[in-house]
Amino acid sequence: MALRNRTALTNIVNQENVKNVKSSVTTVAGKTRRAALGEIGNKVNTLRGIEPVDRTSLLTKDKKKITVPKQAIKPPEKLNEKLPVQIVKPVVKVTASQETNEVSLPSKKEIQSFSSNLLEIEDIDEEDKENPSLVSIYSNNIYEYLRILESMYPISEGYLSEQEVTPKMRSVLIDWLVDVHQQFHLMQETLYLTVATIDRFLQAFRSIDRKRLQLVGVTAMFIASKYEEMYSPDINDFVYITDNAYSKVEILQMEMLIVKTLDYSFGRPLPLHFLRRYSKAGKALPIHHTLAKYFLEQSLVHYEMCHYPPSLIAAAAIYLAFLIYSNDDEDEQKVVWTNTLAHYSTYSKDDVFPVVRETASIIINVDKIKYQAVRKKYAHVKYMKISTRPELKSALLNTIATADKEAV
């Protein structure tokens, strides 16, 4: 009987909904069970009235809206005559290129947006497209960003002027850090970041005296090792390497000073980053790449090279490596700085060659200077004994050091 009474009540409520909407909302909310979103449906019904919604009228209204664009689309048959100028012609090129297998040429021209010399520029990332770890799609954008970063953190020429620290002191420090770097078996990037940190700090903080210069160098390598290494040396190792000239507390205090002075920014790109890209663009052999690395580390020691951007020093190093050790073909000897290298490095031959001459003059005088850490390092079998090669003592290197840019 209770169930029958409930059904009777619901029937009465439904009749009341038809007669009076306001009463149905109050009574039904308290007595009957609504479905999901039922209240939303009630609100719609109260706005539209008691009568059911005429869905066919809504469809006709929508059809009127649709038919108007259809009438507007009919005249665009005339517009289709204008569209082929922008859309149809590229489609015709694609179909023709599918028959001749020349689809890639127009796409490269549109993406790179260069002159007619694009036909001589190779896509060095084409073979790496199937390797996701090399992110070949983003390679060009990454190196553009690195060039922006190196312009954000420049090192001015002659920044040690009017300071107690002299260029000779700096060279002695870097030469000693090369030995320390080898003793700790650190990564190559750690050495380059150490030197960059020293130069940037000495440029910004101009009150370092000669007694604290070694402390700056050790602390810079301590910071760089924590930035680059998987397992950086302990701070006690750096205390030991200085023969207890500085305490652990002094290194930590200098670390805080360097980090604050450089505003916690250690993302300045290194010459190694660009050298790997240039070696790939120039199809360098292992001997070319190792020669270029030898030139780069020699440039780290010499103060007169520190103001050049990392990308330019790397370009000069690989250029000089190609000049010194070239293949037997005469055609390859004539064209050293190809269009592909100029494209990916963004430097022309005129931009690179002055730095090439300075690098060549440094290599010529290696035997005459006191800083021999880099030379001894690259005399090892691990580095192909590159510093002992006869090409570094040839007459060609002397002519490069004194030649004009048109001679090579």
UniProtKB/TrEMBL annotation:
<dbReference type="GO" id="GO:0005634">
    <property type="term" value="C:nucleus"/>
</dbReference>
<dbReference type="InterPro" id="IPR006671">
    <property type="entry name" value="Cyclin_N"/>
</dbReference>
<feature type="domain" description="Cyclin C-terminal">
    <location>
        <begin position="269"/>
        <end position="392"/>
    </location>
</feature>
<keyword id="KW-0131">Cell cycle</keyword>
<dbReference type="InterPro" id="IPR013763">
    <property type="entry name" value="Cyclin-like_dom"/>
</dbReference>
<dbReference type="GO" id="GO:0044772">
    <property type="term" value="P:mitotic cell cycle phase transition"/>
</dbReference>
<feature type="domain" description="Cyclin-like">
    <location>
        <begin position="273"/>
        <end position="361"/>
    </location>
</feature>
<feature type="domain" description="Cyclin-like">
    <location>
        <begin position="175"/>
        <end position="260"/>
    </location>
</feature>
<dbReference type="Pfam" id="PF02984">
    <property type="entry name" value="Cyclin_C"/>
</dbReference>
<comment type="similarity">
    <text>Belongs to the cyclin family.</text>
</comment>
<protein>
    <recommendedName>
        <fullName>G2/mitotic-specific cyclin-B</fullName>
    </recommendedName>
</protein>
<dbReference type="GO" id="GO:0016538">
    <property type="term" value="F:cyclin-dependent protein serine/threonine kinase regulator activity"/>
</dbReference>
<dbReference type="InterPro" id="IPR036915">
    <property type="entry name" value="Cyclin-like_sf"/>
</dbReference>
<keyword id="KW-0195">Cyclin</keyword>
<dbReference type="InterPro" id="IPR004367">
    <property type="entry name" value="Cyclin_C-dom"/>
</dbReference>
<dbReference type="Pfam" id="PF00134">
    <property type="entry name" value="Cyclin_N"/>
</dbReference>
<dbReference type="InterPro" id="IPR039361">
    <property type="entry name" value="Cyclin"/>
</dbReference>
<keyword id="KW-0132">Cell division</keyword>
<dbReference type="GO" id="GO:0051301">
    <property type="term" value="P:cell division"/>
</dbReference>
<dbReference type="InterPro" id="IPR046965">
    <property type="entry name" value="Cyclin_A/B-like"/>
</dbReference>
